[in-house]
Amino acid sequence: MKNGSMLAVLGTVEIEAGEISPEEFINRAREAGARLWNISAVGGKVQCKTDIFSYNRLVAVQKQTGCTLTVLKKSGLCVLARTVWLRKLLLVGFMGFWLTLYFLSGLVWHIRVEGARTLDEAEILEYVRSLGLEQWASIRDIDLNRMERELTLRFPEIAWVAVERQGTQITIRIVEREADPLQFGVPVDIVAENDGIIIEMKVIQGIPLVEPGMTVAKGDVLISGFKDEKGIVNAAGFVRALVYIEGYGEAAVEERVKVFTGNEFTARYLTLGNKKIALTRRNHRFARFEKVETRRFFRGNPRIPIGLLEQRYREVELQTVRHTPEEARELARERAMLRAHQQLGEHADLLETKVYDITADDVFRVKVVLTAETRIGRQKAQAKGEN
Amino acid sequence: MAKVEKVKKKIADIFDLPHDTVLGLPRVTLIGSHQLYIENHTGINLYEKNQIRVGVHKGEIQIDGEDLQLRTVYSDDIFIEGKIFNIFLKEQV
């Protein structure tokens, strides 16, 4: 149809010409520059399709030849536009619909508060209402960043807050501060984190219950906090002690280790309450694997029973690694050393390291004992009614 | 052949130009036995289900077949569809 395709999209007219031979009508139309397609001659009449611009030329042919020209059908964008133009109320309704939709999409339909454990949701909603965030308020007028700042200032219990917009819904996500024991009216003690021999201690406040040279066990109270008529006195200070830290490691000449092959398979399910509908057709064919499950809820709300479950399978292979007896002994020593060092605090001064070979069978077993000087005190709230 | 046409043909030969463009000769493209495309026509002489005759420069192309239909008719080209049996080129004497 060459460039006629575009004209046909704009508007197509199906016509019937009578009282003229098909050949004459076609030739006259061609001479007039009209485009015709799907031409059929039925009972001395010609039926064909033409574009809206060619139709005016066919009207001229009709006047010249005196033939009849009947429009059977009209279609295309121009015809649609004319129809719509003639039905002004429809046009107004259509525009009104979109304007209403635009207007309503700019309003707050729903406000949700997430993460409030001790805070009262109603109190938060009441406060944000005073800042202009309420149902049916205009979303465009709300400064979400300001809302976050104001909420943090108003509620000191809030550690982090985000006010997010998702369509017409506003979600206030809150993370509350971890409860501070001081706020419960209970004194705080300093207790021993490890067994050890006290070598130095400084008490800033509280009652010292041990002194240098004493041996303490893990959990023993070193400095005690108390409560008197003036109020709560929390234990403060530091205690250094000589500690003995043990680490154990073993290694065999032949060991089986787990290695990921790199093959993965993800199975997805649609969850409806307790039911699972598989979205993935086939299943994995791994003999050994590790599985990780991820669950996502509809609109992030776990109360809605619709969600997606993703199970990720990673294929693993058991490989046999062989060591010489010397290598196995060294490996056991390294493992024991690593475990012992992991228990050392950051303020520890290492004084001595002793390695004991306790191998009794074909597995090499090593024990490491570290002697170190370190801080052993940590804060712990007293149980209620202790003082 | 008129003198002007002889000159045109000579020019087309010298410059290796397509004759259908220079001399206005028909170009006929047959796709299988169901579609026929004719360029540089001068009009429709007969339009029937079994036969269509298309006027071309100094002659006529006759198409015989079954259920023949003019799919498109533009000023320079025609597209015919149907079961085509024969195509004749009749030159005007």
Class computed from helices, strands and strand pairing of chain A: alpha+beta
Oligomer: heterodimer
Strand content of chain A: 35-45%
Tally of individual helices of chain A? 8
Average per-residue pLDDT of chain B, rounded, comes to 88
Unreliably modeled segments of chain B:
none
Biggest interface pair, residues each?
Answer: A-B, 18 and 13 residues
Q: Can you tell me the CATH architecture of chain B?
A: Sandwich
Strand content of chain B: over 45%
Question: What gap, in angstroms, lies between the N and C termini of chain B?
Answer: 11 Å
Query: Would you identify the regions of chain A where 5 or more consecutive residues have pLDDT less than 50?
Result: none
CATH superfamily of the domain at 4-81 in chain A: ACT domain
In short:
The complex is a heterodimer of chains A (387) and B (93). With 387 residues, chain A is an alpha+beta fold. Chain A contains 8 helices and 22 strands.
